[in-house]
């Protein structure tokens, strides 16, 4: 589904990504771990060209999205993204937050979009919040709505950048549960997280990034159970 080769990204003189090569298969759940500043967010943002790579190629479903004449808007619709901060529209209801992009961008009818929103609200366990406003929701509820909103565009892949890092501890589980169910449903997912228990349980593959490169990758059992690289071992010793 995604094929990244020799991805480099610099901000001025700061070279943040230094040659990332990775392939992500359909239905795969890839969890990216690594220390702060290692380039995890930059990598994720390059995948949907929220950041323009300095060099390298990204193929999405066989199409090069890094070549200059590619229309990224059409591709972005197929990539849902959920950030640490939920960025819901404060003056729109929960239902409107979910339906605005499908109506405006996908040209869905209001009825169709409302129906899909109702199904998604059920999926994330928040059907009763349809007419509420974001400030009436807890952090965990807002993040579940942010996930529903991304899913409303019927993406082919979901990108998550530390979706639980800004939440109070008691709300982390409800968001991870929604993500776990999404994974079990076959969604292709790339997830940056510090939740190592979740990574081990739900990830098909773990990528350990440090210093702008993928230092090590493998199954959760390989990376958590028998890390090969000293930097991986050092990082895991600090976080586990
Ligand atoms: P991580 O998500 O692993 O913590 P980031 O990808 O956010 O790492 O950041 C990696 C490096 O890139 C950091 O040194 C950061 O300061 C730098 N960086 C990230 N985004 C920008 C930006 N928009 N402009 C300049 N530097 C940036
Ligand atoms: Mg980050």
UniProtKB/TrEMBL annotation:
Keywords: Amino-acid transport, ATP-binding, Cell membrane, Membrane, Nucleotide-binding, Transport
Predominant location: membrane
PROSITE patterns noted in UniProt: ABC_TRANSPORTER_1, ABC_TRANSPORTER_2
A Pfam family of this chain: ABC_tran
Superkingdom field: Bacteria
UniProt entry tagged with the keyword Ubl conjugation: no
GO CC entries: plasma membrane
Residue ranges of every copy of the ABC transporter domain listed in the record: 2-236
Classification via InterPro entries: AAA+_ATPase (IPR003593), ABC_ATPase_HisP-typ (IPR030679), ABC_transporter-like_ATP-bd (IPR003439), ABC_transporter-like_CS (IPR017871), MetN_ABC_transporter-like (IPR050086), P-loop_NTPase (IPR027417)
Gene3D superfamilies reported in the protein's UniProt record: P-loop containing nucleotide triphosphate hydrolases
Membrane topology: Peripheral membrane protein
UniProt-recorded Gene Ontology molecular function terms: ABC-type amino acid transporter activity; ATP binding; ATP hydrolysis activity
Similarity section: Belongs to the ABC transporter superfamily.
Protein name: Polar amino acid transport system ATP-binding protein
């Amino acid at each position: 589904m995604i094929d990244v080769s020799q991805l480099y990204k610099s901000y001025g003189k700061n070279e943040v990504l230094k040659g990332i090569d990775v392939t992500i298969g359909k239905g795969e759940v890839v969890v990216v771990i690594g220390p702060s500043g290692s380039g995890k967010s930059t990598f994720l943002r390059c995948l949907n060209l929220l950041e323009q790579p300095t060099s390298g190629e990204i193929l999405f479903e066989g199409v090069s999205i890094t070549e200059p004449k590619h229309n990224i808007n059409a591709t972005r619709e197929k990539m849902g993204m959920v950030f640490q901060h939920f960025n819901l529209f404060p003056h729109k209801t929960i239902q409107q937050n979910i339906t605005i992009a499908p109506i405006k961008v996908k040209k869905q009818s209001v009825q169709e979009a409302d129906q899909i929103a109702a199904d998604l609200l059920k999926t994330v366990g928040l059907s009763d919040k349809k007419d509420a406003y974001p400030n009436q929701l807890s952090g965990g509820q807002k993040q579940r709505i942010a996930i529903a909103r991304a899913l409303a565009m019927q993406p082919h892949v979901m990108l998550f950048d530390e979706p639980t890092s800004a939440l109070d501890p008691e709300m982390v589980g409800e968001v991870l549960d929604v993500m776990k169910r999404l994974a079990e449903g076959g969604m292709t997912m790339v997830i940056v997280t510090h939740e190592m228990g979740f990574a081990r349980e739900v990830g098909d593959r773990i990528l350990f990034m440090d210093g702008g490169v993928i230092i090590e990758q493998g199954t959760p059992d390989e990376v958590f159970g028998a890390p090969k690289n000293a930097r991986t071992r050092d990082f895991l010793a600090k976080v586990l």
